[in-house]
## 1
Amino acid sequence: MIQRNRTPRNKGETAMAEPKVEAKTENKFSSVTEMIGAISSDDHVADSVRKRIAQRQVVKALFAMRAAKGIPQSSVADALGCTQSRFSKIENGLDGDLSISELEAYARALDQDVCLVFRDRNSTAVDRVKMHAFQIKKELERMAEVAHKDESIAEAVAGFFGEAFFNLVKLVQRASNKLPKRSNDEPYIHIGVAELLCDEHHLDAPKPRELSRRVPKPVASVHANA
Amino acid sequence: MWNLNPLSDVPKRLDRFKKKWAHEMTNVFDNLDTVVEALNAGTKAEQLKQLGFVHSEPFGVLAIDQRGPGKGSKLKQFRLYVFPEEDAEQLHLITLGDKDSQQDDIKQAKSFAQGLLQKKITDARRRIKDDSAQPNAAK
């Protein structure tokens, strides 16, 4: 905790309140679920908070989108065909109380599509990564198809492919950096995309956005060499 | 992404209230999660006041109450005082209290927010002073 001493004021200086409490620089948390376990000495309270948050994920996501877009409750209530007080109950209720038609109408009022994903309950992390990878492949192929329509689209898509390649490899590289090391302090795997691109194409500082504009071709050749 | 920065008062008060007022504590922290979700989605701190469970206090302090599912109006009133530092994307959790400590809690929260704002003003002044001193030094 940073402590600040009381400083003498000059004559005529505006009386600003003395900072009695200062920001703690440590113990920062990215979510309430993460924080509650650390600050509560009672597991029961922490579990109860986590359970409640898990039960309200969908309504919270919808609410957050509505608030960010500045759409009033009344507009969405109209779209749902219900009163504002009923709508308020939906927003403050649990996901289980929300019907699929209400969810769809709410999303539509926010100009959003609803995507439902069914997943095997026993699926592993590897299965989930593969599922997303397959989805990425499908979307990229769809973009490649669209690129046949126009040369400028093809150019843009090629640029994006370069960016996507770099970012995806970088993503795996970052995750691999979090792996433990072997007993001899050697990493289990070394993914050196930055060095690879620098060595092959003499880029000083590979930045994804620049890469897409300047050198889509070399990325393709890296892929071919690999 | 917004970060949560709980000051030392929050865990202490939570420890004091959690046994008797577990439901209220769950609601307060669930509401806090909603606030974080909204901030992460791009909602401005100013807009958070439209939430039924968020109250506005002086110097940009917000008070999050215990409203939520269950028990209805029978819930005891609690407030978690927070200060959203928008440029740093940090939500400072200042203190947690009931109606009895409300006046002291507000005073404490105001003092914290003022301190932080004052520090920002001092830093900005110092930066301006440094910037204006540089060209003179070059001459």
## 2
Amino acid sequence: MPAEIQLVKPIIQRNPWVRPCLLSLVLGYIAFLIFVPVGTLFFSAFSEGAVSFFKVLCRWDVLHAFGLTFFLSVLAVLVNAVFGLIIAWVLVRHDFLGKKFLNALVDLPFAVSPVVAGYMLILLFGRTGWCHAWLQAAGIKIVFSLPGMAIATAFVSLPFVIREVMPVLQEIGLEEEQAAHTLGANGWQTFWRVTFPSIRWGLLYGITLTFARAMGEFGALFVVSGAVSGETETATLFVFRAMDERMYQEAYAVSVVLAAVSFFVLLAMEALKKRIHEEI
Amino acid sequence: MGISVKNLTKRFGEFTAVDHVSFEVKQGELVALLGPSGSGKSTILRMICGLETPDEGEIFLTGEDATALPIQKRGVGFVFQHYALFKHMNVWQNIAFGLEVQKFPQQDIKDRVDELLRLVQLQGYSHHYPSQLSGGQRQRVALARALAPKPKVLLLDEPFGALDAKVREELRNWIRRLHDEFHVTSVFVTHDQNEALEISDKIVVVNQGRVEQIGTSQEIYENPQSSFVAGFIGPVNVLRGKVEQGKAKIGQFEFALDKNMLEGHSAVEALIRPSDVVLAMPSEGKLPTGRVKRISFLGWGIKVDIVLKDGQLLTVHLTKERFQELQLAEGQDVYIQPTDAKVFKQKVASQDYSI
């Protein structure tokens, strides 16, 4: 049937070289930006053998740095999960003056350089800062100590939960909650049994992003922490110092661990994305 | 008394959605709130349920003042047009939800859910999720869920609106049977006059936030109290005319007038149902009054479009037998005599709901 063959024939004559050229361009670019650097990192980390790699990881200041990074990330996740959920709720469900402004403001941590964010905290809480006298009287130290680092980490990772939960809240609408009310459920029961199950995958996705972002934070912490080894030095700050002091083996090893954690977070995100699409 | 609303009013900004609405629903009655979209009928239902707060007026549920009662304490079952089933719960969990949050004993919950699953004929579906069900099945689950905690009143907001015609028909009959069995005081909102006429004990016709008329299907169909009701319920012809010598003169026809319509209203309109017209071949004493323009076959009968002498159009429904007797043809002159007409004052900007 020649007529049908005519139909399936491509109308535009394609250059047979376009596909392989595009493909190798993409692969080359990704290799240049991701495969090669990450591969080099792994190769360098283990260049002096696995024993020396694990030896580095057992150093006291390295363990402390990892502990601190983990602690700050978990703290940022907890704080931003709770407040992010509340902010998302208010932005979707309530109407008030300045809502659009607040909605735009939420993205500020994306736009502002983390270094600037850290500097803002210094201006506010530092020795010449507005709150300094008051804080000193109360005996609270924020800058160059844990509270300041926690605030900085929470700041840079604020938008993720909000931006992931808001569209889901918008999508599910009000009717299921109203149905729950008519069946006798109070606000608390409705939230936990009807609303929360609908937004949980979005929330978890936001939490994963928050964790990944918090773990990788460097600039704001660099400014606000003082980077005292064994005290206010996180894993990323350790890598920076190790490079500076030509302790390359240490820098490589810690970097590899950070990269590995990021990779698993990425896998978790992919799995979560699938769940979100199934739910909606 | 099942439900009683008095002077219910709701405004959205400048717009008055519901304007001093009052009506009563007897215990065990099935009542339709019928009106065009935007007439405020859904808002009335949502106020009875507690999903909206009235600006004025009172709501009584089984004799108790429920105006200020929170939604959870009203004992109402509500069925949404788009079901609003809990997506992450299966059919069983959906139906059990109300019983669980109201802390019914486990055994009672189990028995009640099983009973309701039987009632809505979904016994095999207790582990299915809403996304795995058809529209009709979802609406039946929504109904079972609303009925589970034994509500005092059942409110249904366009319950068949999202379903296709055949399923609508089935579910409509099924709801009527269900109601006859359980006698839950029920109010349902619809814009479909057939739905209202067919299954309700009483119809409340709502237009522009006001109650136009309350009555049984028959009362409303046969004795509409406004041109809106006449036009909204069933097909109708609207013929324009004026008052002359104490009678409504519309073309060649004359109709008696209510006394209160005589003064100041010279412009009137007569609403005539297509089935309330007698057609005959012109003969002596039966002068032709119109000409057949078009004859259409409707299945159960014949529709004849006629141009009257004064140019107005009139649609007449005939049974097949009568049509056979008359041997009508397009272009033929006929004698026309309306047997029933409702005469109303002509509105300035009359809406067009003639057929």
## 3
Amino acid sequence: MLTVKILGSGCANCKKLEAVAREAATSAGVEAEFIKVTDMKAIMAYDLLSTPGLVVNEKLVSSGRIPTQAEVRQWMGA
Amino acid sequence: MSDVLHLLNGGAGNLAAYLAAHVLLCLLPAFFIAGAMAALIPKASITRFLGRTTPRHVSYPAAAAAGSLLAVCSCTIVPLFAGIYRKGAGLGPAITFLFFAPAGNIMALAYTGSILGAEFAAARFVLCLLFGIGIGLLMALLFWRDDAAHDAQTDTLFADKASIGPAAIGVLLSLVALLVAGTLKLWPLSATIATVNLPLPWAEAWQATLIQWVPFDAAKGEEGVSAQGSLLIVLLLLIGATAWKGLENIVEGANRWTWIALGLAATTLGVAALRLTPHAGGLQVALTGRVVAVALTLWAVLRYARRLNPEDWQAWMWESWRFVKQIFLLLVVGVFVVGVIRQLIRPEWIQALAGQNNLQGNAVAVVFGVFMYFPTLVEVPVARMFLDLGMHPGPLLAYLMADPELSLQSMLMVAAVVGRAKTAAYVGLVAGFSICAGLLYGAWVDGINPVWLALGLAGFAALLVAALAWLQSRHQRAVAGS
């Protein structure tokens, strides 16, 4: 069971990132819990310069862009 | 009933006039430039100058550059602002960044230039840059104790180094050239090279129908819809429909619709650069210098874009599309509403309140800017309306300085990151500086002796340098004492 966090204040890119991550998890058959982090202080704790950020098991894997589904699957270890 | 119809007509007329050639030639490239900046400029190429150890004469200009190059959207503004403040250069540069970002980014400047004129865009840029740095320095002075007690956590957030690839620079420069070729109203661009008469007998009737649909009063500064404008609106709708299919999932790769949408966008630019004049029995198509310039720059964009690697290219397309989705709809609705409201405001009111460049006029403009919140870029058509209704350019610039910087959204954001006392100080400073900016620009428009103006600006710059020196020594003492 993975914990996937989406960091972002709710702008268009964060929604897109969430959709990409969810699709990647489904297509890879990975069970994951998705958490949206919108609080600025909590986001800054991950050391990123621009949202959206993607965190898999407490590790920041991407920030400031939307990764492809293939990349996300790789980070999820599938 | 006829009153309502009259209002709606005002809105539709305003909207149609905005979608006309000169605005499209500015907005369409601007969206692509904004997308390219967001996707192709690595953030570390600028943010490495924003670390805590960076000297002030580097960090303040870098903060302004970050505002103008990186921060077209709030997704970047908020984390970067919080990052510069808490883990980077401190409160001053963070405030400079926050002040400069909404007014100094390429979309705001290009749009201001095409709607209000190049002079306004230049004044907005220079005064925002100068006052943005000034306000940042003042905030750092006021709250110097706070900066001395910085977040002690060491981190590498601002240590990364990166540079922009040559292909990305080529794309950016040719896009800027495209923007310039599309918007400048100069001789080789506006000259007619050749004209062709197309035997389209319905063209004149169509133009008459358009005028009937959207009646306009040229004396009030209103613009109607031309036959060319209607063609452009159709092209825009087609781009919207194809882009939805072609760009929504661009991160996973391009498809057939992507190329159709991009081809349509290029066609739109070409058509907007032509001059179409309906006359009895046909349509006259004038090939202008602008068409040649637009075609050349488009070719340059394509040439450099082909050298980008696929991820960069796709990220660029996605960011541009996202800006279109985010801003264009708001702009369309905003422009429509401005057109409706314009029918209700009497020019005498505006002239009485802000028709002259004095303290009262500028203050009224700033207060209006603070309390009215317009979404991104809608402040520009609002400003155009005020200008047409007789507002003096000075107060108008004051309003343009205050409105985007002091929106409710930005105040809440500043308050969440830095607290209420600093937010109050920031709001006060911005209001004061905006009034000054309006008075200065207004005096310049009224033809004040440029020597006085230069002296005033030099005095301001000297004040800034003095403040900087004081801040530096205070900091050193604070560090030595701790």
